[in-house]
Design goal:
By secondary structure, this protein is α/β, with parallel strands linked by helices. It is built from 16 helices and 16 strands. It has 3 domains: 42-76, no CATH class; 107-270 and 428-474, 3-Layer(aba) Sandwich (Rossmann fold), CATH 3.40.50; 274-401, Response regulator (Rossmann fold, 3-Layer(aba) Sandwich), CATH 3.40.50. Helix 6 (168-187) links the parallel strand 3 and strand 4. The chain starts with 24 loop residues before the first helix and ends with a strand.
Length: 503
């Protein structure tokens, strides 16, 4: 099936952009080799299974099918876990009558939700259209509008899980990508003539809630694939459930390296930290000419530990030196003391492998540093909060990201996004669009869970993404390099600062 780029459509993001720079062929080759060795040969696994069957009896195999996914045979059968407490009866397509997003709901949107709850599809369509006219950058409303247009008619169903109540801006960015993909498909021919329905879930950015949602989705046979989750911790928490259920999941934003070994039904459209760290380390050594790094990370975050480890490995192997490491989760951590130690150790560059949370330690580091040492950072710091609060202190900070709108300004995806949302979109939106379109391509090939997973795991698989084709390494990682952006002064945001591609 060929999924083409969309015609421009009508129904703003508050977020900015991000971009893409190529990694070396040597890195890609070594990544391929490492990923290829992750799976046991099918024959070896088959022999092992024969032994297991002989020893344990046929009871374990009742209702079980073995399929070849990513190079090995794996069990697809009934779940051993108990039914989830997550309510699937509400539909989570707007028919619960409640918005997933925090904050006030417009009158028109609430009327649309009420109509959806009553299965009054015609009224729901009218009210959601009115809500989009009032606020066109609300992706939840656009998804519900498209779901209302489907009504009770046949549709293929995927789910989207985002941390709406905890990290609303990233959640909206991800939702816009999936909403744009659904809108694009359903305005044309759908998936081989069948429209796409999207169920929405708020995992609250919590691993336990992500696991509950995964259990509920696994138990719903209509769900053929999942776009999620936001953080590496939530994706890893849910991965075992998806694996046991044979339900393919694609994360657009989880970058921790160990997700590559999370399971054969786990994919991602965002490159792993290994590629981003390699790009950052080479830039630090070869362009910034800095060789002594002070690295800040949070030991309680899988993502942060992954970024720190990958950067340190690449930096050291390329001739640099990590002179200090600071764990911001440590009791008594002080930004001022840490920077003093870094200077005492003659650090000439700061690496931030951190996320933004309730306490914005990265922004505090920028404020105390006052641009005395250059800063390089991982993709989590591609955020409007860095621009709005960091401002002058953030100038010149370099961030590794998967994608940037200015690098693809003439693309059909960017043009449609600007028309649809009323402004620029960033890498999270592009990667989420790619995830939804990739699932749609798999569904179009074989509309079953295992069929989708097998299609995605095929070495020759390609899906048309926002601006680049989607291909996967044998591990399920995206075969695409990172690129660099930096904070500069500009008029594309209200703060007077923006991220722009590094030339």
């Amino acid at each position: 099936m060929s999924l083409t780029q969309p015609p421009k459509s009508t129904p703003e993001p508050q977020q900015k952009s991000s971009s893409s720079q190529s990694s070396s062929n040597q890195n890609t080759t070594s990544q391929n080799a490492a990923n290829s060795s992750r799976k046991l040969p099918a024959l070896a696994v088959s022999v092992a299974l024969t032994a297991v069957i002989a020893l344990t009896g046929a009871w374990w195999l009742k209702g079980t099918v073995f399929r070849n996914i990513k190079g090995g045979f794996f069990r697809v059968g009934p779940l051993d876990s108990q039914p989830s407490e997550v309510d699937m009866t509400a539909g989570h397509d707007g028919s619960s009558g409640v918005s997933m997003l925090p904050g006030s709901v417009s009158g028109a949107k609430q009327k649309g939700l009420d109509a959806m709850a009553a299965k009054d599809w015609a009224t729901a369509k009218v009210e959601f259209a009115a809500a989009l006219a009032e606020k066109r950058n609300d992706p939840e409303t656009l998804i519900y509008f498209n779901n209302a247009k489907i009504g009770n008619n046949p549709a293929y169903t995927i789910a989207l899980s985002v941390p709406a109540s905890k990290f609303s801006n990233p959640a909206l960015e991800i939702m816009r990508g999936v909403a744009q993909a659904q809108n694009t498909l359903n305005q044309s021919v759908g998936i081989n003539g069948t429209p796409l329905k999207v169920l929405l879930f708020d995992d609250q950015g919590e691993p336990e809630q992500a696991q509950e949602i995964a259990n509920a989705l696994a138990a719903n046979p209509n769900v053929l694939g999942v776009v999620g989750h936001y953080s590496s911790d939530t994706t890893l928490a849910a991965a075992d459930v998806y694996e046991a259920a044979g339900l393919p999941v694609i994360s657009p934003t989880s970058t921790a390296v160990n997700i590559a070994s999370a399971g054969d039904y786990v994919f991602r459209t965002v490159p792993s930290d290994r590629l981003a760290a390699s790009t950052l380390a080479r830039h630090t050594l070869n362009t910034l000419k800095k060789k002594k790094a002070a690295v800040f990370y949070n030991s309680e975050s899988t993502y942060s530990r992954s970024v720190k480890s990958e950067f340190a490995t690449e930096f050291l192997s390329s001739g640099g030196d990590v002179v200090a490491e600071f764990d911001t989760a440590e009791a008594g951590f002080s930004v001022g003391n840490a920077l003093k130690v870094a200077k005492d150790q003659e650090a000439d560059v700061i690496m931030l492998g951190l996320t933004l949370g309730t306490v914005d330690i990265p922004i505090q580091i920028m404020a105390v540093n006052k641009r005395q040492l250059p800063i390089v950072a991982s993709d989590s710091l591609y955020s409007p909060r860095v621009l709005d609060i960091g401002q002058e202190n953030a100038l010149g900070m370099t961030v590794a990201v998967p994608w940037h709108t200015l690098s693809h300004a003439q693309s059909a995806f960017v043009g449609t996004a600007q028309t649809l949302w009323g402004g620029d979109v960033n890498w999270r939106t592009a990667m989420a669009y790619d995830a939804a379109m990739t699932l749609a391509t798999g569904i179009g090939t074989e509309p079953t869970r295992v069929g989708v997973a097998e299609t995605l795991a095929n070495p020759g698989f390609t899906a048309t993404g926002a601006t680049d084709d989607v291909r996967f390494f044998p591990s399920g990682d995206r075969n695409q390099p990172s690129q660099l952006v930096k904070v500069v002064k500009g008029n594309r945001t209200s703060s007077g600062y923006e991220f722009a591609p590094v030339e």
